[in-house]
Structure formats: structure tokens, C-alpha cells
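Key idea: predict the complex, not the pieces.
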Amino acid sequence: MRVHLVGTGLIGTSLGLALTRHGDEVTLEDAVPTHAALARDLGAGRLPGPDEVLEPDLVVVAAPPDVTAGCVVAALARFPGAAVTDVASVKGSVLAAVRASGAELARYCGSHPMAGRERSGAVSGRHDLFDGRAWVVTPTPETLPEVTALVSDVARAAGAAVRRLPPAEHDRAVAAVSHVPQLAASLVAARLEALDEAAVALAGQGLRDVTRIAESDPHLWTQILAGNAGAVREVLDGLAADLGAVVDALAALEAGADAPGARGTLATTIAAGNAGHARIPGKHGAAPTIYETVRVLVPDEPGQLGRLFADIGEIGTNIEEFHLDHGLGQDFGLAEVDVVPAAAAGLADALATRGWRIHG
Amino acid sequence: MRVHLVGTGLIGTSLGLALTRHGDEVTLEDAVPTHAALARDLGAGRLPGPDEVLEPDLVVVAAPPDVTAGCVVAALARFPGAAVTDVASVKGSVLAAVRASGAELARYCGSHPMAGRERSGAVSGRHDLFDGRAWVVTPTPETLPEVTALVSDVARAAGAAVRRLPPAEHDRAVAAVSHVPQLAASLVAARLEALDEAAVALAGQGLRDVTRIAESDPHLWTQILAGNAGAVREVLDGLAADLGAVVDALAALEAGADAPGARGTLATTIAAGNAGHARIPGKHGAAPTIYETVRVLVPDEPGQLGRLFADIGEIGTNIEEFHLDHGLGQDFGLAEVDVVPAAAAGLADALATRGWRIHG
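Result:
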């Protein structure tokens, strides 16, 4: 397959690396020619010759969200025999702009690989960035079936698991599972900016988890949120209404009202969170699995966590999840080892026998 | 030291186990006598004899937040020679109620061990629940210095790191670092309740992190939030104002406005989250440390993660953080191993030599 990549940042370069390994013929271009040259040097594909006429089977636009639609329209015009896709994390606004341009929609099928890294640029590209990740393809009624099939094949060739959704459904989904969580993390983290040192010192694992993605890039996220403004606003409207009810309930309690309704609002809010959380699938997109957690105290000395790893390896229990939680002000951490319930007691006993302090 | 525990749930029982191991003389009572008997059977202390006159040095009230103040007032009256503390996660409202009762404040010093488990009750109690956790003590101007010292000694005897804060400052701190993050996690998770199966299937690690604590108990959290209504409402007011600005910006962009101000609002929101997140201390309450992450693909087969642990153990690199992220629809996970920057390349090379696929 001949694939032409427009845009050689993190996603474009990673896709070039993956498809080159897969045996496809990949050509590269970027608005900044030195970026394309760097991606070539990294092994993501080749640069077209000065007078070469490209005849790709598929053009993949991997440009920032704001310029994606323009690149798609240009590619549809420039390569009349090619299918065209893009990889922007918003789909409806890109489609609307492509449609408004009068471009030929039959050869266009938007898509969205749900993969990324905290670093950007060609130099951060990895051939296995898409391994095991969802890659959503979003054909329209105008899209030719063979175009959708081609885009899906390329996503699978890159190692991804293809999911098919209409563009608007994709946008509503990522608004709820990605864009609103990002905003919530940022809004909670922003409250820490003006806090006393003594107050932030009380930060625990809960806060760390809620705000981990608050490290994200403002420039990229402005484009993503602006490109999905309608769907994000809709989810936020629901969230803001719930938040308003909580604020009203707290104000009623503050005013000293007996306020059984206010307490009911608080309880309902936390319970609705329980119900929503229970809907998040477990690993590999399967239904959530309940594991048992074996907690082990790990002294914060060189080699101690390594010794734990070695011991667990020798014991041979299959670990489903592993998380290390550092304590505050003392020299050890708490390792949480999740295993299937039947294996928990055996692992805990075997570790205790080897001298580990089991913590629950 | 003679310590009398009022309330033998998770916190009371854990404290009894810790202090008994430490060599203190612990007596137990609970509003439900069979609960106290269970805590005794677990080794958390002894039950007083039927006619025994207790003369404890310290009484620790470990009851639910809603009944804490009443128990503190009763303990101050019943044990005129004892210091009294409580372990509720809210301090100002407990103090206000104790003060309003006319009780003797000199012998009372509130406190808050920042420790817990997702399970409750005596049977979940652990002697090492407080190991390395912060335990905030919140004396008032009326509190005798020796009472504050006694409460601090007991917290340290249980393994905790003592932090001293005025009650109102404690409440403002936990509003920002614990109570508002809990609400944000619940509010985000609640948006998933009505989502299509195909939409929740796109859930990634970001959503999982943001909503992990949305599993919390509505009954307990209603009491905590109601008990800290003022401080939580204040933080939420700031958050709601920021959220309102985001909603307005999205509405302006939706309306097709060119809206440079709207994009500026989105960028500022994410950037403020960056700045707030950077204030969260690293492990052991130290300044945040930047680690390098070595990413390793782990096939989802029995023993593979164990083999990785064994290999890392043999290589001997000290691991600072470890996180396992499962892919979607494919049979492996991505292990993220954080190490000091100087050790990253060596660990990656050594793992690659042993046949592991390094992913970045």
C-alpha cells in the first residue's frame, strides 16, 4: 500500500514508523520541510523527489486540529485517485468544514487514533504508539465502503483496534470520556495554585489521580476543545447543573438549615458517581473485573522494589494491576498488587513468608 | 499510656491495633457493643469491666463525623482527668459544636489522620493503617500545650507524621486537596451513567485516573461534605466561576464567533491547571521530582509481569513509580517504570537485552 502522510509530528511520524515496519510504502510531507526530513531520518518513510508525481492509495492528514480540514480539502483536490483520512481528536467540525468547501466526500473518511504521549514532535514518535489502542473510524453516508475499509486496514496495520462510529457520536463520546475529564482535572488543579504550602502538603493519592492529566498542553487542548465546543458544552451543562445543586446544598447547610434535602443532594451526587464509575470497562475493553488487592510495604531504599518484583516473579502469580503509592514523611511506599480473588491469599502468604510486611 | 477509644470502626480499630503493638494500654467502647467486642477479638484492646472506673490519659473519639462532637462533649465530662481528641475529617464544625456546648476546651485537641481504606468496619482495621500518613493536629488557643503534645505522641506512636494546623486552615486545605477533588470525580463519573456502550468503550487511562475515587461511600461523604460545607462551597465557587467562563467560551465558539477571547479562556484554563498541578508535592512531601519513564510492553499471559518484575529486580535499578496501563482490545499492557533520569537509558537497554519491547 502507498500511504502519503501530511504532517510529521508525534502521530504522523509514529504512523510512518508503524506502516514502514508493516511493509507499506510511506511518503512524508510537513508544512515545515525540516520536520519532514527529521521524520525521514528517523525511518518514518521517504521524501518525494522534486518532480515526482505521487499516486498514493491513502493520504493521512496528521496536522493540528485547527488546520486539519484545510489539509483534507487540499489532499482531496491534489490526489484525485486517493482515499483521504485525518487523525484529529475532533470529527464533526472537521467534517463540516470539508463539506462546506464543496470537496468530494466519497473519498473522505475521518478517523481518530486514541493514542498519544505527553511529549510531541517527530522525535517522540514510536512505531508502537498505536499498539492495542482504539482507532475510531467515522465514515459519513457519502463515504465509499472501500474508503472506510482502506482506512480501517491502515489502522489495523498500525496495531490499533478499529471502532466505527458516526462523527457526531464520536464527538459526544470523547466529550464525556476525554474532554470533560481533562477540563475537570484542570479546574481542580487550578484551585491549588493559590494554596498555602502547608495545605498542598496534605495532598494524597486521590488528588494526584484526579489531577494527573492537568499537565496537558494548553495550545493543543485549546484546539481540541474549540473543535468540539458543542458536545463539550452539552456535557458541561449537565455537570454545571449538578455542581450548582451541590453548591446550593452546601450553602443551605452553611446557613444552618436542618436541610434534609441538602444532605440528599450530596448523597445523590456521590451515588451517581458510583453508578457512572461502574460503567467504565476493565482492561481490553471487557466488563469491569473485580480484583483483590494485596498491599505490601516497600522501604524506600535502593533495590527494595526490585526485590519485591523479583519475589513476585518467583512466586509466579499473574498481576492484573500494580500501583505504587508513596507515604508522606516516612521512608517507604505502599505497593498495591491487584490479582484475581482466588490468588490473593496465596500471594499475601508467600510474600509474608519472604519477609514482606503485608498491609491489609 | 492509657488510651480509651470511643468508636471501633476502621479508624478506631486500626488505632487500637497500632497502640497495642506500641505497648499502650487500650480500652474500647462502641455505641454497638458487639462492634467493640469484635475489635477486642481482633486484638485492638480490652473491654472495661462492668464496674471498672476508667482513668485514661487520652480519649480518642473515632465515631462518624455527624456524632463526633456529641461524643467529645460526653468524654470531656465523663473523664475529667483525660485529654480528648477526635479523628473526624472535618474540624471546624466539630469544634464549634463542642464550644457551643460549654465544654472545657483546654483538654480538647481535634485531629485528623489522613488515612483510610475503601472498606470500613473493625474487620478492615490494620495496625499499619497510619504508617507514613499525615496526621493533622488542630489545637485551639484554649488547648493546653501538654494536651496537644499527648495527641501528637499518640499519632506518632501509631506511625503517622504529625502536621499542626489551626482547625479552619485544616478545613480549607482538605476542601481543596480532598473534598473538591472527590466531588469533581463524582460529577465527571456521573456523566457516564447515561452514555452509550460504544461511548464508554472509548474510556482511557485519563478517565480512569480522574474518576478512581468516584467509588467512595455516599453515606460517609455526605457527612464529610456537610461538616465542611463552608470551606467546600468557597472552593467550589471559584471552580464554578472558572467552569462558567469555559461554558461561555464554548458557547461563543459554537455560535461561530471568531472569538479570540474565547480561545484565550480555554488556554488560560488548561494553563492554570498546569500551574496548580506543579504545586503537588512529590513522594514523602518533598518537592516534585521529575523522573524519566521507561515504557515496556507486557504480554497479558500468566507470569509475564512476574518475569518483568524478576528482570527489573536482577538489573537492580531503583524504581520510583510503577504503573500498569492496559491497552484496548489487544493482549498486552504497557508498564510505565519511573526512574531517576540518570538510570533510564541503562534500564531500557538492560530490559531490551533481556528481550523486552521498550516503548519510548
